[in-house]
Design goal:
mainly alpha; 0% strand
């Protein structure tokens, strides 16, 4: 008796699940169409066969889907022009969801959007923009020539300030610096020569500090160290000789520790081991002979003699 009740409950739950799946499949048609991959055809057929809904309900859902696509296509015109789903658009026209004037209005909105976008682009790219869209804006009174001129002025001002900023990273004679834009900024009072000079000072200071930092990796005599920039830093009080000596010490210390580490991989007599750097470490108390001996033991342990 208990077994029969449990079986009936399971069957009832299964039926409820199937009914829910069928209704969900019907709902899916309104969003994906009757042939959409998201629509569970088996569940849909279950609903039809068991009288949960009839074919007219499926047809109505399909009509809702086509109407949704048609209105979506109309809306897309405002952003992409007539490069939209033409089939869906025609469905909307044929079924009276909207008329040709609605399509024309959407196309006008699209062209106006492109025209304003072209005007805005001038502020970032100059007159290298969509000229056709720009002309549409002029012809239809969305803006006038003075608006284009103002946008071009903003663009030139942007380039001038960008050129000034570039000096701080590349110097006034650096290839990335747009001299024409820089001159525009000077001629139109966006900044004066003192601002250009200050930017050049920042650049030289940056190079000087970079040269000082390079010593920690390449040593004061390293080919990567900009001697001119280093001297600039000394002459202008950005750092003193003790700072240079300090980073040179860091360089030698790093070389010494690297040399000690090399012993563990190549042995104390290995070619990659910098003997001079190793002796520096010993002489300056960075490590003692026992540390070298331990490194050699590690090397020999991982490279047993045959």
């Amino acid at each position: 008796m208990l077994y029969n009740i449990q079986g009936e409950l399971k069957m009832a739950n299964k039926t409820q699940d199937l009914e829910q799946m069928a209704r969900e499949a019907l709902g899916m048609i309104t969003r994906h169409g009757v042939d959409g991959s998201s629509v569970d055809r088996e569940a849909l057929n279950y609903g039809l066969e068991h009288g949960l809904f009839d074919q007219s309900a499926v047809d109505d859902a399909q009509i809702q889907y086509r109407a949704l696509r048609a209105r979506s296509a109309l809306d897309m015109i405002t952003r992409h022009g007539l490069f939209v789903d033409r089939k869906a658009l025609n469905y909307g026209l044929e079924h009276g969801l909207f008329d040709q004037s609605a399509i024309d209005d959407a196309q006008i909105q699209y062209r106006a959007l492109r025209a304003r976008s072209a005007l805005d682009m001038i502020t970032r790219h100059g007159l290298f923009v969509d000229r056709k869209a720009l002309n549409y804006g002029l012809e239809h009174g969305l803006f006038d020539q003075s608006a284009i001129d103002d946008a071009q002025i903003q663009y030139r001002a942007l380039r001038a300030r960008s050129a000034l900023d570039m000096i701080t990273r590349h110097g006034v004679d650096g290839p990335p610096v747009d001299r024409k834009a820089l001159n525009y900024g000077l001629e139109h009072g966006l900044f004066d020569q003192s601002a250009v000079d200050d930017a050049q000072i920042q650049y030289r200071a940056l190079r000087a500090r970079s040269a000082l930092d390079m010593i920690t990796r390449h040593g004061v005599d390293g080919s990567s160290v900009d001697r001119e920039a280093l001297n600039y830093g000394l002459e202008h009080g950005l750092f003193d000789q003790s700072a240079i000596d300090g980073v040179e010490v860091q360089y030698h210390q790093k070389k010494a520790r690297d040399a000690l580490d090399m012993v563990t991989r190549h042995g104390v007599d290995g070619l990659p081991v910098d003997r001079k750097a190793l002796n520096y470490g010993l002489e300056h108390g960075l490590f003692d002979q026992s540390a070298i001996d331990d490194a050699q033991i590690q090397y020999e342990a991982s490279h047993p003699k045959k």
